[in-house]
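Incident log, structure service

09:12 report received: a user says their structure output differs between two submissions of the same chain.
09:20 pulled the input from the user's history:
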Amino acid sequence: MKRILFCLAGILALPTFHAPAAEYLGASASLSKAISAAQADRSATEDDEQDSLQKLRQDLRAFEESKNIGEEESAREWLSLAYRTSRMGQVNDGLGEPIRFPTVVKALPSPAAWPALRKNAASSAKEAKATPAEGLAVTWFADRLLGQTDKLLADYDAIAHLDGIWRRRDPLWTQRSLEQLASVTLQMVTDRDERISLLNKRLDGMIAAANEVRRSGRMDYSRYEFPDVVAIVGEKDGQQLIARALTTYPGEIDFGSGRTREAAEEIALSNIDSLAAAQWNLSCSLENGELYERLLKKFGKGDATGNYREAQEYAFYRAILAGNMDLAETIARAYGPEFSPSGDILLEIGHGSESTKVLAHLLEKEPNAGFWRTYITFAVQVGEDAAMLDLLKATLAREDLAPELRSELLDEQLDALLATNQTDQAIAQIRHRLVPTPGAPSTGDQSAALSLKLAQLGALLDRKDWLEEGLKGASSALRKQLSRQDPSNATSTIDEISELLVDARRGPEAEALWIDVLGACIAKQKLPQYSGSILSAEMPQVMRNLVGIYAAAGRWEDVLTLVNDAPFWGVPDLATIVSDECYIGNRRFLPLGVCVARALATTGKWDEAVKLTEAMMPRLSGNDSAYALLLELRGQQAIPMLDRLAADDAFEERPLIWKAKLLLETKKLDEAEAVIRKAISIDPSDGEQGPGDRMRAYSVLAEILTAKGDTKQAGLYQGVVASIRMSEQADVFYRVGLLQRAIALYEESLTHFADAYCIQSRLALRLSESGHWKEAEDHYRRAYELMPDSFGRVESHCFGCERAFAGKPQQSIAESVFRKLAKEQPDKPQVHYLLGYLYEEEGRDLAAVPEYQRAVELDPDYLNAWKKLDSAPATALSPAERSRIALNIIRLDPAGKHCSPNLDGVNDLAAVWDQLTLAQKSLPHAPASLYPLPASARKIAELIATDPAARSYLNRPEDDNREPGKAFSDMNATDAVESMFQIFQSQFAGD
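09:34 re-ran on a clean worker, output below:
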């Protein structure tokens, strides 16, 4: 009976839009049809060079697996592999990525062998017939491992003295590689005089290299990324370095942001006559009009690309702010027809209306100008859409309009109609454009896009006629595309059509679509380099989509047929693809592993389902559908596993949410409430979850409170969930382009729960984008006030996506709110974290550091604050402090599920290695095999038999974030040595 109930529960948990079984072709027939549609032709060859690389791969694997060898022998073997890697260079044998120095670092021996590495680096280089320069580079790397700063400086000088040899080949490339070495060395130096000396040496090298290139007439790539010298050596000495760079470096200099850039702007303005080159990027701000004018006077107009173009855009903005519309028009005309400034700055400070008028005036005279996109955006956002639509209509009526521009303007007109809720007119335009014009070139791609838009609008607005018409047109256009091109060029269109079909309960049509795609993939099958799969990259995607279609229809036997009988998964076991997503309708996805386990249980293979589900939980510890399946299979017996998952990752709230549900079932209400409130405290915003799952903890809390009789509080949390669900629906309207409707939904969502900061910030953003800044301001302020109480020790809200701090007006409001809160709640770590986050958004990275430090001082377990400190500017923290940060990140997140420590600048790498090793040993490892994919494994074996280039894909190990070697391979120091190796390979050969 339990298994029967499970089958019913599993089916009810999925969208209930099952089509009659007879309408589906079924997995077996689908595979037969696709395979018979085409045959793939494969061949591969190898040469002696590839054989050598294969031997290196074998020796590297053997070294990784070697046990019980002494430090001296281990060091010598590793050094031999490193120098052989340098000799091999970028040779590719088709077995995956070329072996490079970071690959060898993944096999780095333990710290006990590092002194022997240092001692033997030079002698091993001679034995391997490597150049002295390669020996010096590896010696430098060994000193970096050991944290020997004085020797690092000496190593750098020794390598730099070799520059006379390589500069005759490619000076700037060589010097930039040396810059990487210097940058890492600088992070380890704490003495101020030594820092200044090294910075001057770097500048000397870049000047010499740029002058050498300049003499050869090649200045196209001479841009210099200048270090943040003010942060490194202070204001006075930093200014001296900046002044020397500005007056001696013959190319463009990128001064980044922050105080170093500000100082560069001031120095450039006061030393305009001494500048060695026009630094146009320094005039790219609203405040630097004088610098722009003086650069223009001294150097004349710049070239047609790069910083000069951006400087012109800012000159345009400044003219508008000054009310000088004639000048703005002159600048736009001088720029040319490709002028298309984004204009976000003007919108943010409330000058979008003036910009709109200037652009409209220009476009009336020259309709072929290239800034229609900006104009339309401005007009919609400042509420002048009626005038904009009139201008568009008048322009489209002109007979002299270029065909390409006409097509672009029709797209813009369509977006504008949708944004302003003129849906019927938008549909009429789509239909008109879908009618073929005699003699016009084929526009299949455009037909697919327009038909898709029609279908999406029909699905969203419940217009079945639009949906049907759009799907028919999109499917027809897509099949034409598949007949003439690689399916990889149409994957996004295919996905969107398929999702619409599944949503509309038309699974058989979606099935037929993917069969056609699979046939096209087979016909064009080839072995892609570096893809991690032995098959055309689209084939596993086809399989996942078919699994989702069958899962949504409750056709579980077909799901098992695909995983057992389809040869197109590209891997021999489910383990590496268990989390790949399968679309099941209504914007919901299930991991492939969940689909397979549910199929096993539903088809009577209960024990296999239980075994697979428990084995895959560590890989799916953040996925609600996996927990739902676990509880259905194990019931109350799932609690020990939930406890283990929670213990393994203190920053994953999902095990606690589902444990609270089990406790609720057994009426342990107080315990259930305590558990669910702990889950909420971990990440109150719950922002990493997709539609339908976000804020699940609040839904469970409402159930618990209802069971306890506290209906008032339960209603509050029900309002939280209802508000989020409505805002998710508003997101859909916004993505389709129905902006006014989206804003109305955001506003309505606030009536359910006004204290959701994410909804407040979304609404504020949409209002500001629509030109309603006054209304937006209140919502921004409220969002910032709510943020501290909405953040836990991990924060999963993406500020970049929501642009919560984009624009100076927003930043000004946020700073006033956060500073006020800091006075009122000085011991609340989230307030200091948010201040630091805001300073970063403003480009004030150094100011952010003390705020993050205060946050971790108040809460030593505040993982996200440690993460922010970990990414602080290179020399903003001492090497000892960086070591402390890395060790705390490993302590808090030993599994590496939320972040990995940044080891650049860490002075005690041995301690980090030991901590990573301890974490690796103490935490459970997911099994290498979860569920074999028999047909896929046989296909791999066949390919290996005929094509040696496929063999490395069999049982390829995954990178483990807990592997010390993996963490060390990601260091800038590792990349710096690889860069040196590349120079030696190309420039020392034959010397």
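09:41 both user submissions now match this output. Likely a transient worker issue. Closing.
09:42 reviewer note: The CA atoms of residues 386 and 685 lie 39 Å apart. The chain has a mean pLDDT of 82.
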